[in-house]
Amino acid sequence: MFFAVFCLLVAFVVQGSADCGKLAADKRSQLEAALKGKATYDCSIETEADQLLTTIKDGTWWKYTVVVYESTKPDDLFNRAVESWKDQIAELEAGAFFGCNTSEEDAKYRIVCLFMS
C-alpha cells in the first residue's frame, strides 16, 4: 500500500530531541540521511504519524493522504521505504518537515510518514 502525504498543517517544530517518542534517534537520522536534505524531522509530526498507524490498522479513513511502506522483512526497512517513495519525495519543497512511526504486527512491518511543506 503506497500513498503520498502532502498536506499543510500548523505544527510546533521540535527538532534535535534525543527522544521523540517511538522512533529512536538513529532511525530518525537514517530517514533524514536517506531523504538527502529534502526534509527535517519534526517530533510533533511523529505523534500524528502514530495516530495514522492506528487509523490504518482500524480501517478508518484518515483525512490526509499518507505515505506508507509495508514489508515482511525488517532489514533495511527505512532505506527501502524511502526508495519506494522517491517520486513523492522529489516533489517536496525545500524546508519541508516530516514525522514517521512504525508498527509490527503479524510479521508485517509498516512505516508511515507524514510530510508537511
Descriptive notes:
There is one protein chain. The chain is globular. α1 (about 25-35) packs parallel to α3 (about 75-85). The chain is α+β, with helices and mostly antiparallel strands. The protein has one domain (about 25-115): 3-Layer(aba) Sandwich (Pathogenesis-related Protein p14a), CATH 3.40.33. A hairpin with a 2-residue loop joins β3 and β4 (about 110-115). The chain is built from four helices and four strands. Strands 1-3-4-2 form a four-stranded mixed β-sheet. Residues about 1-20 have low confidence and may be disordered. It comes from Ancylostoma ceylanicum.
By secondary-structure content and strand pairing, the structural class works out as: alpha+beta
Q: How many strands, which pairing sense, and closed or not: the largest β-sheet?
A: 4 strands, mixed
Q: Could you give the order of strands across the largest sheet? A: 1-3-4-2
Model regions low in confidence, pLDDT < 50 over at least 5 residues:
1-18
